[in-house]
Amino acid sequence: MFRDMFSNTTNDVDNNTSTIVDASASMLIPTRVVFYIFVLLDIPSVICSLLLLYYFIRLPEVHHHNESNQIIIYLLIGSFLVTSLDIPLMLPYLHNYSYIPSMAHPNIFCIFWIMYDYGMYSINLWLMTLACLERYLRIFFKQLITHNAKRRMMKFQKEVLS
After folding, report:
1. What is the mean pLDDT of residues 65-89?
2. Domain boundaries, the chain
3. Which end of the chain has less Cβ packing within 10 Å, N or C?
4. Cα separation of 139 and 136, whole Å?
5. Distance (Å, rounded) from C-alpha 85 to C-alpha 46?
6. Three-class SS state of 11
7. How many Cβ atoms from other residues are within 10 Å of residue 158's Cβ?
């Protein structure tokens, strides 16, 4: 997967002959550099995600201030799962150019990883879309939302009082 992207050689086809071009001419990033960048940036990312989750869940002035913060909490959980589980799955390959050699079923691991990747990124994309739609409706259709909220509250009060 990453070997093609970050390899030190590339194939260049010219007049039906294959020649190997040095990577320094094409400005590819060495795999070791990518590994250390991922390690250095993943650790603070996980810590920041945990701090943001703490502030959104534990502090009442942020948690109860606006009910639209709920979707932001879901986005934080999704991004935390990506940074804490997905990036560490890439690190062994970037470090060793292979996964655990004694792994019994590497194909099952790869299928799980692909499904996890696509699933988490798709869920985060849908949550971002819902957050944008919610913000749009709150800004441009504020009267409609407040009117419907008042109507729902009155129905709820009738049911509770009766």
Report:
1. 83
2. 2-123
3. C
4. 5
5. 10
6. strand
7. 9
